Amino acid sequence: MVSTRGLKLKFFEGERVLCYEPDPTKAKVLYDSKVLDIVINKDHRGRKNIEYLIHFQGWNSSWDRCVGEEYVLKDTPENRQLQKDLAEKAQLQLGAYLYRKERKKNRKPGDRASASEDGGSSSSPGRMDTDDGHGITSTSEDDSSTEDEAIYIELTADLRKIIENDYYLIKEKNKLMKLPAEPNIATILESYYRHYATNQICGLTEKSTGRYRTQSINQNSVKPKPEDIQRNLAICREVLDGLRIYFDFTLSDLLLYKQEVGQIAFKQAVSQLDNGDVKME
After folding, report:
1. Strand partners, 154
2. Rounded to whole angstroms, how far apart are CA atoms 215 and 121?
3. Are the CB atoms for 34 and 54 separated by under 8 Å?
4. In terms of pTM, does the model score above 0.70?
5. Is 62 helix (H, G, I), strand (E, B) or coil?
6. What are the start and end residues of each CATH 2.30.30.140 domain in the chain?
7. pLDDT 10s digit of each residue in the chain, 281 long?
8. Within a 13 Å sphere around the CA of 196, how many CA atoms are in the beta-carbon half?
9. Which of the 8 DSSP states describes residue 177?
């Protein structure tokens, strides 16, 4: 173990802090976090480097990460405001609106015409990129006047029944759900990742519905390469990370009924008190 003598530590073990998303490819946001451990390493020149093992509050321990000091901030009112500002910015980047706008940019003219004939909403067509002919380039005017288009999601009968029951209990009967939910989002995402990883490793990327279908798949299937599995798992983890961030920062604004917002705020405040917040000077 490398000695910490002579090192000035900005944070200590057990301290509640704010931590930036460590993945530079994802939205820059700040998470409620806790320092689990202080890790001291040496670089190739023998100089000591300080890293902190961070646990992100409300998430499974499998998401714990070692990060440098530059990723960690003290839990102060100023940094809380920064957290809020970054969260609002992240919602614009991660929300469905950006997806719709990008989809409009990349949609082919034939697809746009087809959508109009089917009764779907449409916007002003983009300008064809005549330099390389690889797609459609939207003008600045199109960007500034892009209209939201409706997205219709087909719900199963069981899911619709659950949503309608929630609406009735919360809006009509003024009842609240028991928190924390079981299973919560972190558990669902982690369970899906394990399930997906197991199928990838075992080569079971398809599910069959009968004996003869199973035999056909086994005879014609190609054993996946290790590098393909590694790439697929990395993509899966990235998608789940995006969902985790989306749920984390759109919960109060988009995913809750008005009656539930106060309940969540109260639960979060109690959780912080139970975990022992650090008082900053």
Report:
1. none
2. 45
3. yes
4. no
5. helix
6. 16-94
7. 455 566 788 999 999 999 998 887 777 889 999 999 998 887 777 778 889 999 988 787 888 889 999 999 999 999 999 988 888 777 644 433 333 444 444 554 444 444 444 444 333 333 333 344 433 334 444 444 444 566 777 778 888 888 888 888 888 888 888 877 788 888 999 999 999 999 888 865 454 444 444 444 444 556 778 888 888 898 999 899 888 888 877 777 777 888 888 887 787 777 777 666 544 43
8. 17
9. -
**Type of residue at 197:** A
Integer Cα distance of 182 and 180 in angstroms: 7
For residue 156, the tally of other CB atoms under 10 A from its CB is 8
Please name the CATH architecture into which domain 16-94 falls. Roll (2.30)
d(CA 80, CA 152): 36
Helix intervals (H) in 40-184: 77-94, 96-106, 109-117, 140-144, 157-167
Taking residue 94's Cβ as centre, other Cβ atoms within 10 Å add up to 19
Q: Residue 9's Cα: distance from chain center in Å?
A: 31
Q: What is the DSSP letter of 8?
A: -
